[in-house]
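Researcher: Quick test of sequence recovery. Tokens follow.
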């Protein structure tokens, strides 16, 4: 299934956010662009994209907000969202139209649902009095299980870039009842926890599976998952360097060979 990585920025000014659209488009979107091989890091990519929009800034890793995923018929789009704290300028590139909207404006709600939810979450974080979240602990046991399962399926979808129902059926065929523990607990409870974004969790898991050694299937799966979650090859390389320091070079070298194979496979799939 096809995948692309989009870098987008949530720029706020006086409780408004800026959206842009091309002259012939009807849908507004966050200022964004596609990550390319010319960008050594996602932060450099976001800086370059905003500079081309007319926004002066230097994005750092502290400006990263979260990664979200928009599913479509051909696969999914990875959105790495940034909230620059230090920027200046106005959107003024070419024929692109830009307007500032209040969060309550219906236009905001027409963003792709996962992107809107991220914007919504950021807005509530900066305006805590508007929060009306229902915590998982406030639900009864059956509701909690259902919520975890839904969240687990969504993690499974983005981790493996596929149809979640088909992936669930494959897990059940291979692992029986253990698949429920994987989806409901490992993915729905731990992976879906808001404490870390999925890209970071993927990089951690790559490091752990590489350090453990002798688990080529798990390592390959999570290398693919890291790429699906928007990690760059450089970030994976740096993760494996940490493995070399703390778990030994043999484990890191094994991971390195797997990484080269997986990234080549991903490049071939993206060109088909």
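Model:
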């Amino acid at each position: 299934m096809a995948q692309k990585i989009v870098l987008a920025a949530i720029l706020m000014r006086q409780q408004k956010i800026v959206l842009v659209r091309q002259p012939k488009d009807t849908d507004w979107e966050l200022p964004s662009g596609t990550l390319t091989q010319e960008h050594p890091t996602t932060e450099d990519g976001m800086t370059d994209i905003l500079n081309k929009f007319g926004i002066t800034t230097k994005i750092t890793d502290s400006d990263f907000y979260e990664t979200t995923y928009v599913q479509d018929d051909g696969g999914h789009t990875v959105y790495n969202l940034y909230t620059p704290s230090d920027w200046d300028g106005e959107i003024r590139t070419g024929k692109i139209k830009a307007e500032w909207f209040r969060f309550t404006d219906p236009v905001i709600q027409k963003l792709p649902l996962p992107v809107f939810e991220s914007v919504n979450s950021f807005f509530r974080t900066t305006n805590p009095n508007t929060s009306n979240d229902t915590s998982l602990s406030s639900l009864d046991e059956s509701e909690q299980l259902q919520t975890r399962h839904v969240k687990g399926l969504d993690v499974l979808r983005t981790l493996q870039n596929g149809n979640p129902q088909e992936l669930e059926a494959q897990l059940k065929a291979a692992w029986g009842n253990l698949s429920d523990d994987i989806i409901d607990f490992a993915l729905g409870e731990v992976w879906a926890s808001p404490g870390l974004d999925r890209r970071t969790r993927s990089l951690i898991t790559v490091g752990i599976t590489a350090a453990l050694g002798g688990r080529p299937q798990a390592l390959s799966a999570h290398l693919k998952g890291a790429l699906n979650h928007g990690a760059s090859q450089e970030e994976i390389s740096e993760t494996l360097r940490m493995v070399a320091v703390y778990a030994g070079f043999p484990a890191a070298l094994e991971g390195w060979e797997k990484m080269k194979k997986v990234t080549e496979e991903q490049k071939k799939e993206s060109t088909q």
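The longest helix spans residues 249-271.
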